[in-house]
Amino acid sequence: MxxxxxxxxxxxxxxxxxxxxxxxxxxxxxLLLAMAGQAALARTVLELDAxxxxxxxxxxxxxxxxxxxxxxxxxxxxxxxxxxxxxxxKGIYPLQPRQALWIRFTVPPAPDAERWLLEIAYPAxxxxxLYTLDRAGLxxxxxxxxxxxxxxxxxxxxxxxxxxxxxxxxxxxxxxxINNVQGFSAPIRxxxxxxxxxxxxxxxxxxxVYFGLALLGLVAGLAGVILLKDRAxxxxxxxxxxxxxxxxxxTGVAALHLLPDYPQWADRSLVxxxxxxxxxxxxxxxxxxSLAQRSRLLNGLVWAVMLAGAALSLALALTDSELRIRLIVxxxxxxxxxxxxxxxxxxxxxxxFGGWLLLSxxxxALSLALAxxxxxxxxxLSFVTEQAALASMALQMPAMLAVLVLRSQHRRExxxxxxxxxxxxxxxGLINESVFAERLARMIARSERLRHxxxxxxxxxxxxxxxxxxxxxxxxxDLPLRVAERLxxxxxxxxxxxxxxxxRFSMLVEGPFSAVEAATLxxxxxxxxxxxxxxxxxxxVAQVHVAYALVPRQGPSAEIALARLAQTLAGVSPHxxxxxxxxxxxxxxx
Length: 590
Fold this sequence. Notes:
Blueprint: H1 2-37, E1 55-56, E2 62-66, H2 73-78, E3 85-86, E4 100-107, E5 116-120, E6 127-133, E7 139-144, E8 161-164, E9 172-179, E10 188-192, H3 193-228, H4 231-251, H5 253-258, H6 263-288, H7 291-294, H8 296-318, H9 321-348, H10 354-375, H11 383-419, H12 433-450, E11 454-461, H13 464-471, H14 473-490, E12 496-499, E13 504-509, H15 515-530, E14 544-551, H16 558-570, E15 580-582
Parallel strand pairs: 14-15
Antiparallel strand pairs: 1-10, 2-3, 2-4, 4-9, 5-8, 5-10, 6-7, 6-9, 11-13, 11-14, 12-13
Helix pairs in contact: 3-4, 3-11, 4-6, 4-11, 6-8, 6-9, 8-9, 9-10, 10-11, 13-14, 14-15
């Protein structure tokens, strides 16, 4: 009976519970549909793990490109018909000038134990804005990029860093807006503040190397200008400064430390400094290979390209971002190709430094090609495309400094040779007639003071015509060189050998020197010259006539001694079998 009385009540309760379950399911469906309709809701949910950093966005979010860049965040959040697509893994988006890239993603609930940041490793980015809803239902914006002063960034850094906040109870939805006239090909990733700190410590080491090399180049260039008086070192110092500043612009150091309150200049600094760096490299390469002295046409072309670069830098400083990329890309292609062409031209024409310059410039040209491909959106921003240009410049500048040092040594050696032409015979390396007369005069004075005598010898090469008839012109032309070699092998370290004319040589023998020793020296010289030469016929030898005098006894002055020796040899027939002649004692005449 009791059960029967309760059963109607139980039936009513079951009915009520069934209705409530159906209502709950309906409400849940409505809630899910409402959540799915929210524009800020991403397709997937991020999983941020501090042990797996950096965490790439990859295809976990959705993106849409606003073709007019006019829609606001409220319009994007309320637009339920926008054709969202999943984010691209490689991060190369078809973003054009005057367009805006919108990306939505959701951060899951998590304890606020770690401060996370959204990192866009692209120092040249124009604008990046991260929006999130606050408790009042309003969109809060964090803005970074070159068009915003670095001091106003939420986290001042070399490249954009945006703070990602957590909620311990519910997901947090974000909208990211990106504007960039050069397209957008940088990876979007999530990192913790501690990870950024550790990464910056490593990056600081490499940046220190880059800027240290640039400073070293500046100091070396200024030292070369002061010590060597070579304008090529001035160009090298100028080039080193521009390379360092360009490196600072590429890495974002310039905007962070040099131009934190001047976003417009920070936005233009990379393209302007890059053009001037190419101008300096062109000028330096042309100077090293002496292009102005070797080819007026090619040198004029180089100067035309440099002047065009100077005008281009002014245009880049005054034009909008959209036009800059169209202006600079042709120059980034033309200038390196011309630099490689100049180095190749010099190398093919025997320049000893052209090959080394070509080898040092090739990696830079390749890295510049990678950078242009990234600017055009053909390649994504990566370690290679970002650091290749820095690494190539860090290698090219020390290589060019080494070339400059070798060039300076070569020029000093040539200068010494040119200055020595008035004292040394260039073909044999022996002293010439004027130097020989000076040394003879000093030897005579020294012999009178020390009361001893020395010897002076004059040697004539007499069979040149016969050698030319029998063995050819080249053998006859080489014969004086072989005589000079034999004289040097006969002379002592304190003696001097000279070439007085094409076929006449002379030798000074320091005393004390006896008449007996002088009598044996002449035949020894004749015998040395008659010895066969390596690689020639045994009959291709030098026949010489030797006249000698003891000074100051047989020649009280240099002029008299040389005149008497020349007079003696002039009276000897070329066919004379006698080869050695002694000048008799000098007799003063009134």
